[in-house]
Fold each of these.
Amino acid sequence: MAWLQALREPEQALDWTLPQWERVLRLSRRLRLLGRLAESLEAADLTARLPAPVARHLQAELRYSRWRTRLLLWGMERLPAMMGEPPYPLVLLKGAAYVAQGLPIASGRLPSDIDILVPQEHLADAQRRLMAAGWAETALDEHDRRYYHEWSHEVPPMQHVLHGLELDLHHNILPPVGHTRVDMALLLARLQPSPSAPWQVFHPQDQVLHSAAHLFHDSDARDRLRDLVDLDGLLRHFGTLPGFWQGLPARASELGLSEPLALACHFVTLWLRTPVPAPVLMQIQQAGPSALRRAWLHALLGAVLTPTEPDQGSSRWQNLAAVALLVRHHWRRMPLRILLPHLWHKWRASAKVASDDVLAARADG
Amino acid sequence: MNPVAALEPMRALSQVGTAAIQQALLGPGLLLDVGLAILRVQGDAPGLAQQLHAVYRNFPFRAAPGWADVHLHIHRRRGLRRWVRPQVVFRCDSEEPFDPFPADTALPLMEWGANYLIGRRFNDSLLFHAGVVERDGHALLMPALPGSGKSTLTAALSLRGWRMLSDEFGALDLQRGSFRPVLKPVALKNTSIDVIRAFAPEAELGPEFPRTRKGRVAHLAPSAPAVAARQNHAWPGAVVLPRWRPDGGTRLEPVPPQLVFPTLAFNAFNYAVLGAEGFRAAVSLAQTCPTWQLEYSDLHDAITHLEREWPAVVLQATARRAADSGHEGAMP
């Protein structure tokens, strides 16, 4: 994973041979990091010094990621007006927040959707306003719709005919029924204005904790190396703010997110050499998982987060680790009385698709 | 002669046995240079070696290692599906973006997947969804409108002395302002297959796939001269919007630039991605390329009409470029 260093030190890429480049282009494109690499080389004025077959891919991706960023910016600009400037906070999450704040990691970061958050008591109103402005829920079956409304921390993704990106409207950063419940009042109490008014963003510490929770509470960490690169970038950028590090462990514990923070710090210091002050790192690790738990979590997550080589499928061990983490995820996220019916429905739905497939094949065969 | 072509081995796919192709597919990969990109193909999909042997017959045979831009892997689905209604799977860089296809349609799956990836990735060109052929150094662009039969007309022109650049992509190089070949087999569908067979019995068609998602499909192999010239750009010449009519004569109706622009822009795969650059390129083509709507029922007659107009198109384009370069004081 030495190539990741080139995201921050693009000069390193000048030494790569063509076969090395071929691998990095394939890997980084799949991991949604090619745009970052391209912007980083472009900013250092190095693209023209690369072999022509490489440079064209970087330039092509530059155009692609800049287009996606334009779509994001346009959505961010239009949404408050489309919603009629509602009288409650509008919060940008993740990629949209990074772009609004002009963070270095926003450059070349390929956005997949626009994530926004409103206080839960205003969720229905926000959704109503969006739908009145032409945003519509993506097609879902009845089960999925109920799942979103009752057990999720967001409403189903919405689309608009004039907007290229999907919109995810959240009221929490984690599902409210999981073992870890984040008290949104604490996050909302420390909102910060963003340069794109009226949008607000989380406090820098909370942005880091959200990113860590997003990665380590999700069901599948495969090909999620980009989230670690995000965390590395956030820590490097916000780490220079006065008081950032000192308050971070306590804030994590206050929000119940000490474990994801410890996991995040473990992987970014190990893989991306993120500078975390030693005493703070120790404090974070002490508040994180116990030694035994740490051992198996690090092993499983390390296996799953290590990107598969482009010419190979994932290894048996990697698949096993992914399944183990998936089980853990569901276990923590939903009580069994919700989880079992959910899995039953999902299994039935997939069995139905398979049998429809066979029937359709028979009909035309 | 371009230096890449000079280094290529002499043997074409048609001159090596399918065993050698199969060996490359199962091993390091077969490299297919289609002009805009180099494809690397691997996998154990049944029949793929024979199918490639037929439709890429005039392409030089090269096995990896070597640079590739797009990496395709087409393999049999494992498990029960190996025996019951077998399927083939398309993979690129460890991702499987599509549902599997029936096992007897490996080539259509590969072609479909390759086009999908080319259309998404090569944002150094404005990629019109169009057929392109060249004569006298200038390109004739045929945008793919529903029912236009652009593949049929592209195939027919390529069998009457025009050089084929592509059946699917009008790849306008944004830096040079010229079209680059994306030379792949022409996918002929349903009655088009019979039309082309009747039009040119000597046409080199690959195996027929009776049941694909788009109906019956067979591919026309690009000719040896077109393959040899696949690095040669062509200057923009003219645009033709073909419309096939079962009965009636041939009509060439000029189309004004303000109608050409949306036809071009909204038929491009990456027009939105390229933003202002894409807009300027599409406007420039619409303003400078004479455009006709072509209604035809007979291919021979349609080609005769086009060839009658062509010398004037070439003269006009050449004069325009001379004026532009004189104006800017530099050769293009």
Amino acid sequence: MSVVAPVPRGTLGARVGRSAIDWIPPAMVLVLGILLWEGLVRGLDVQRFLLPAPSAILDTLREERDLLWSAGIYTFTEALGGWVIGSALGVLSAIVLARFRSLGRALMPFAIAANAVPIIAFAPITNQWFGPLEKTSKMAIAAILVFFPVMVNTLRGLTSVRPQSIELMRSYAAGEIETLRRVRIPNSLPFLFSALKVATVLAMIGAVVGEYFLSSQEALGFQIRNSAALFQFELAWAAITVASVLGILFYSAVALVERRALRWHPSSRSE
Amino acid sequence: MTQAAAVSITGLSKRFERGDVLALDRIDLDVQPGEFVSLIGPSGCGKSTLLRIIGDLIRPTDGDVLVNGKSAHQARLDRDYGIVFQDAVLYDWRTVAKNIALPLEMAGWGRRRRESRVQEMLDLVELSGFQKHHPWQLSGGMQQRVSIARALSFSPPLLLMDEPFGALDEMTRERMNNELLRIWQETLSTVVFVTHSIAESVFLSTRVAVMSARPGRIAGIVAIDLPQPRGPDTREHPHFAELITQVRRLLRKGHALDAPEEDETPLYVAEEGL
Amino acid sequence: MSSAAAARPLVDSRREAQLSALKSGALSLLVLIVLCSLWEAYKWFGERVELTRPFPVNDRTMPHIHDMVGQLFEPSRRNGPLLIDVLLDAAAFTAKEAAAGFLLGAVVGFAIAVVLSESRLLQRGFLPYIVASQTIPILAIAPMVVVWVNPKLPEPLEGWGAVSVIAAYLTFFPVTINTLRGLQSADPRALELMRSYAASRWRILWKLRIPASFPYLFTALKIAAPASVVGAIIGELPSSIQGGLAGAILNFNQYYITSPESLWATNIIAAGLGILFFAVVAIAERLLVRRAPEHVA
């Protein structure tokens, strides 16, 4: 019986299940940061326009919570919808391109170029397409923003399988679809999730910038602009805070799903 | 266990288009059912290519390959062989048990039947109790044993092995050799085994086919008449060293047929990103 | 290479490389033509069938591609300069902001990565906020940044310098994350070798970690370069800065009904700018960094 030399479960556990110790440094930074912020704003008498004190923002959050909540949900729905549509299309396209490899190779330079294009400049056009007051116009631009990174990453995951894995499948007389199902797709999950996380941020950007060009009054982006225009800066900053918090929650939700789906993964794949 | 397969290779040649390389040149080789035949030769001589042609993973340019009385292609479709690579090629997202069960799932075996066979295999390779482990939790030697268990799980009449112990240290390698022989004697399948190691080939095989440098030809075949069943003390058998010398001589001869510099370029470089 | 191939002259391999480059160029051109044809085909079909889902198809929502390109060579307004001149000026303006932002963001990002790589504690403390920083809608913050930064800028930078800061905000993040990974990617055996020379921490950083991070750095720069363009455009949008591409977008968005092609043409130019930035970094990478070819299709 050979000597067992497995990787001790400890490292895996420490990575998957965060111990309390891990949380202390960022928590400390947060507390210190807020204290510093409050102190500087009061001490240097910073213009309200630029940066209100955290206490002022907190008050506004509490007072206007209904308004901010509904606006937040409105914008988040746009981002979520765009994220779902863009990711679904991205994954499907990647599967097709992985199957028809020559097509994928021919289209690759265009995918790379598309990643470099400032897609956000396209937002006014999606507004024209779907109507600026509709949610769908913002979902569309978010979906376009999300589509490309998801497709490129998923494609990379589907095709970066070791050749011997494929040979193994061939030795089992497996067809393309079985190989896709049993090998390529599980192999691509780390890549996919990496892209999905980035995509949450992109989707929020798409929604908010899309709203800038024109949007329904219920949208968060509208709130930010409107309140700034009315010199209600605490409200503007409260709205900004809401947008940021939603973005963080969105990202974290996907990260959580990733951790469960990739429980088998020996190393952590960082973004 | 199912009957062991015979492998019959006649006039086999393989030319790769890329670089216009003649990898194999009119190979003739017959493997009897139940035999353990090693393929040994310098780097780039095409032994891995030959193995893959037997497994219908590469198509030959010329010649015939019959496996278990059928064409290599049909044998692959009928799943007449199991293959073990130098890299264990286990799937990280599956447990050890699930990895071994993979070909059984694909063959449509029922759950209960799969589970009992997996247990049998784990016992065979002496890894019982590791069902729920994941590949990265195992050492290299253990991973290879799982790979072997997987290859044998559906009792194929033929086992193809491509330098399966090449990545292991000497002591583990020797131990794995003993294990493999024991398993072979229990399953009675035919084995075609590619290796770099002269001692390993002599220890394991009934015959050793020595290949020349590229283009690969059979430089000679050494019949290994060491007594069966073999064990750790076989290495100390007086005839053992002589047989090693015979193989070495053939290697040198096959080597000298071509350019003095060793052509080390890996011949079969599987395309990454398949 | 096998002995047969080694005997072939060197000229052949260079010619082979040129030939394959030509082939892939032709292929890309073909794909471009096919994509444009698909556009026109969808337009033709949509108008014929009076498609309304996902959006109504007409000359306003889907101008002809040749009209979009042709519009570039029309005056941008009555008796005004050609559209392409206007747009190229705007692009140059935005490019200036983006380039400055790219430089600033790359330097800052790199510096942050170096600091974080040397201290586990700082890393754990600050990394979550660095990631979270990208969730703050910079579009909303842009006017504040402009108001705050502009007065502090010297003469030549005034008016557009603040936008560079915003562009830098989008740029520093990928640089930090990737460079951090790169700095930590040094081969442990190389590290041991350095320690056996009793090399100081600084020297290890300088001679080993930083060079090891270059491939990662360039990967990041390829992402950061187009991001700086996006940042510049987003920064211009709410900041009443007329000279750049955002101004052009807003302008032609206003006049979309009368001339939809102009907005599309603006998008084409903006796309070109993003691709240009990417290409510059990609070429720099090929010249400056020698690395093993990627084993991925």
